[in-house]
Design goal:
- The protein folds into 2 domains: 40 residues, no CATH class; 80 residues, Arc Repressor Mutant, subunit A (Orthogonal Bundle).
- Helix content is 40%, strand content 5%.
- By secondary structure, it is mainly alpha-helical.
- The strands form 2 sheets. Strands 1-2 form a two-stranded antiparallel ribbon. The chain has a two-stranded antiparallel sheet with strand order 3-4.
- The chain is built from 6 helices and 4 strands; from the N terminus they run ααββαααββα.
- Strand 3 and strand 4 form a beta hairpin.
- Helix 1 crosses helix 2.
Protein backbone atom coordinates (compact mmCIF):
# COMPACT_ATOMS: atom_id res chain seq x y z
CA UNK A 1 0.00 0.00 0.00
CA UNK A 2 1.17 3.56 -0.59
CA UNK A 3 2.76 5.32 2.32
CA UNK A 4 2.55 8.95 3.38
CA UNK A 5 5.42 11.22 2.45
CA UNK A 6 7.40 13.27 5.00
CA UNK A 7 4.63 15.87 5.33
CA UNK A 8 1.98 13.24 6.16
CA UNK A 9 0.22 13.55 2.81
CA UNK A 10 -0.31 10.41 0.76
CA UNK A 11 1.89 9.78 -2.26
CA UNK A 12 -0.53 10.08 -5.17
CA UNK A 13 1.77 8.40 -7.66
CA UNK A 14 2.06 5.27 -5.53
CA UNK A 15 -1.69 5.20 -4.90
CA UNK A 16 -2.40 5.51 -8.62
CA UNK A 17 0.15 2.75 -9.30
CA UNK A 18 -1.50 0.45 -6.74
CA UNK A 19 -4.92 1.01 -8.30
CA UNK A 20 -3.56 0.38 -11.79
CA UNK A 21 -1.88 -2.87 -10.66
CA UNK A 22 -5.14 -4.05 -9.08
CA UNK A 23 -6.98 -3.17 -12.29
CA UNK A 24 -4.51 -5.17 -14.40
CA UNK A 25 -4.73 -8.19 -12.07
CA UNK A 26 -8.47 -8.45 -12.63
CA UNK A 27 -8.97 -11.49 -14.91
CA UNK A 28 -11.97 -9.85 -16.60
CA UNK A 29 -9.86 -6.92 -17.81
CA UNK A 30 -7.69 -7.38 -20.89
CA UNK A 31 -6.45 -3.88 -21.80
CA UNK A 32 -4.17 -3.04 -24.68
CA UNK A 33 -0.66 -1.95 -23.76
CA UNK A 34 -1.33 1.63 -24.87
CA UNK A 35 -4.35 1.88 -22.52
CA UNK A 36 -2.33 1.33 -19.33
CA UNK A 37 -0.50 4.70 -19.24
CA UNK A 38 -3.73 6.56 -19.93
CA UNK A 39 -5.47 4.68 -17.10
CA UNK A 40 -2.56 5.39 -14.73
CA UNK A 41 -2.69 9.09 -15.58
CA UNK A 42 -6.46 9.27 -15.09
CA UNK A 43 -6.14 7.53 -11.70
CA UNK A 44 -3.42 9.96 -10.62
CA UNK A 45 -5.54 12.96 -11.62
CA UNK A 46 -8.58 11.52 -9.85
CA UNK A 47 -6.67 10.85 -6.63
CA UNK A 48 -4.98 14.25 -6.70
CA UNK A 49 -8.38 15.85 -7.24
CA UNK A 50 -9.65 14.24 -4.04
CA UNK A 51 -7.03 16.08 -1.99
CA UNK A 52 -8.09 19.52 -3.19
CA UNK A 53 -10.28 21.60 -0.95
CA UNK A 54 -13.91 21.01 -1.74
CA UNK A 55 -15.51 23.81 -3.66
CA UNK A 56 -18.36 25.67 -2.09
CA UNK A 57 -21.61 23.92 -2.86
CA UNK A 58 -23.34 25.61 -5.74
CA UNK A 59 -26.59 27.30 -4.97
CA UNK A 60 -29.32 25.12 -6.37
CA UNK A 61 -31.02 27.09 -9.07
CA UNK A 62 -34.53 26.47 -10.21
CA UNK A 63 -34.20 25.07 -13.68
CA UNK A 64 -36.52 26.75 -16.13
CA UNK A 65 -37.53 24.20 -18.72
CA UNK A 66 -38.11 25.53 -22.19
CA UNK A 67 -40.92 23.71 -24.00
CA UNK A 68 -39.98 22.12 -27.32
CA UNK A 69 -43.11 23.61 -28.92
CA UNK A 70 -45.47 26.41 -27.89
CA UNK A 71 -48.09 25.22 -25.41
CA UNK A 72 -50.98 26.43 -27.58
CA UNK A 73 -49.86 24.37 -30.55
CA UNK A 74 -49.23 21.24 -28.47
CA UNK A 75 -52.92 20.22 -28.33
CA UNK A 76 -54.43 18.79 -31.52
CA UNK A 77 -57.58 16.65 -31.87
CA UNK A 78 -55.66 13.57 -33.06
CA UNK A 79 -52.50 13.90 -30.96
CA UNK A 80 -50.68 15.83 -28.26
CA UNK A 81 -47.21 17.20 -28.88
CA UNK A 82 -44.81 16.58 -26.01
CA UNK A 83 -43.29 19.72 -24.56
CA UNK A 84 -40.24 17.63 -23.64
CA UNK A 85 -39.16 16.44 -27.08
CA UNK A 86 -41.71 17.83 -29.55
CA UNK A 87 -42.93 14.40 -30.71
CA UNK A 88 -46.59 13.47 -31.29
CA UNK A 89 -48.39 11.11 -28.89
CA UNK A 90 -51.98 9.93 -28.48
CA UNK A 91 -51.43 9.65 -24.74
CA UNK A 92 -48.62 11.23 -22.75
CA UNK A 93 -48.66 9.13 -19.57
CA UNK A 94 -46.18 6.43 -20.65
CA UNK A 95 -43.97 9.00 -22.36
CA UNK A 96 -43.83 11.03 -19.16
CA UNK A 97 -42.99 7.92 -17.14
CA UNK A 98 -39.95 7.28 -19.35
CA UNK A 99 -38.72 10.73 -18.34
CA UNK A 100 -39.49 10.14 -14.67
CA UNK A 101 -42.46 12.50 -14.59
CA UNK A 102 -46.07 12.26 -13.54
CA UNK A 103 -48.83 14.29 -15.19
CA UNK A 104 -48.80 16.67 -12.20
CA UNK A 105 -45.03 17.25 -12.33
CA UNK A 106 -45.22 17.71 -16.11
CA UNK A 107 -47.91 20.35 -15.69
CA UNK A 108 -45.91 22.05 -12.94
CA UNK A 109 -42.67 21.97 -14.96
CA UNK A 110 -44.21 23.84 -17.88
CA UNK A 111 -46.75 25.93 -15.97
CA UNK A 112 -49.77 24.19 -17.47
CA UNK A 113 -53.31 24.39 -16.13
CA UNK A 114 -54.80 21.46 -14.24
CA UNK A 115 -57.17 20.72 -17.11
CA UNK A 116 -54.33 20.26 -19.65
CA UNK A 117 -55.16 16.92 -21.33
CA UNK A 118 -52.95 13.85 -21.14
CA UNK A 119 -54.90 12.04 -23.90
CA UNK A 120 -55.79 13.32 -27.39
CA UNK A 121 -59.49 14.18 -27.72
CA UNK A 122 -60.20 11.91 -30.71
CA UNK A 123 -58.37 9.00 -29.09
CA UNK A 124 -60.38 9.46 -25.88
CA UNK A 125 -63.62 9.52 -27.89
CA UNK A 126 -62.62 6.34 -29.71
CA UNK A 127 -61.87 4.55 -26.44
CA UNK A 128 -65.10 5.86 -24.93
CA UNK A 129 -67.05 4.48 -27.91
CA UNK A 130 -65.42 1.08 -27.56
CA UNK A 131 -66.19 1.00 -23.83
CA UNK A 132 -69.83 1.91 -24.44
CA UNK A 133 -70.11 -0.69 -27.18
CA UNK A 134 -68.96 -3.51 -24.91
CA UNK A 135 -71.25 -2.29 -22.15
CA UNK A 136 -68.89 -0.73 -19.65
CA UNK A 137 -70.68 1.70 -17.38
CA UNK A 138 -74.11 0.31 -18.22
CA UNK A 139 -76.42 -0.91 -15.48
CA UNK A 140 -77.43 -4.56 -15.47
CA UNK A 141 -80.54 -5.48 -17.47
CA UNK A 142 -82.79 -6.41 -14.54
CA UNK A 143 -82.46 -4.01 -11.61
CA UNK A 144 -84.30 -4.51 -8.34
CA UNK A 145 -86.51 -1.68 -7.13
CA UNK A 146 -86.66 -0.44 -3.54
CA UNK A 147 -88.89 -3.36 -2.49
CA UNK A 148 -86.36 -5.88 -3.81
CA UNK A 149 -88.46 -7.01 -6.76
CA UNK A 150 -86.88 -7.10 -10.19
CA UNK A 151 -88.07 -4.45 -12.61
CA UNK A 152 -88.77 -5.72 -16.10
CA UNK A 153 -86.59 -4.15 -18.77
CA UNK A 154 -88.23 -3.51 -22.16
CA UNK A 155 -87.59 -6.21 -24.76
CA UNK A 156 -86.03 -3.68 -27.17
CA UNK A 157 -83.30 -2.90 -24.64
CA UNK A 158 -82.62 -6.58 -24.04
CA UNK A 159 -82.39 -7.30 -27.77
CA UNK A 160 -79.98 -4.40 -28.27
CA UNK A 161 -77.81 -5.64 -25.43
CA UNK A 162 -77.54 -9.14 -26.87
CA UNK A 163 -77.26 -8.10 -30.53
CA UNK A 164 -73.52 -7.62 -30.25
CA UNK A 165 -73.08 -11.03 -28.59
CA UNK A 166 -70.82 -13.22 -30.73
CA UNK A 167 -72.58 -16.40 -29.63
CA UNK A 168 -69.73 -17.55 -27.42
CA UNK A 169 -70.55 -18.68 -23.88
Amino acid sequence: MAENNSEGAPNFIELAGDITIAWLQNPNVNPAAEDVPAFLKSMHLAIAGLDEAPAAEPVSEVVAYEPAVPVRSSIKPDYLVSLIDGRKYKTLKRHLATHGLTPDTYRARYGLKLDYPMVAANFAALRRGIAEKIGLGRKSLARPDAAGEAIAVPAETQEAAYASDSGRP
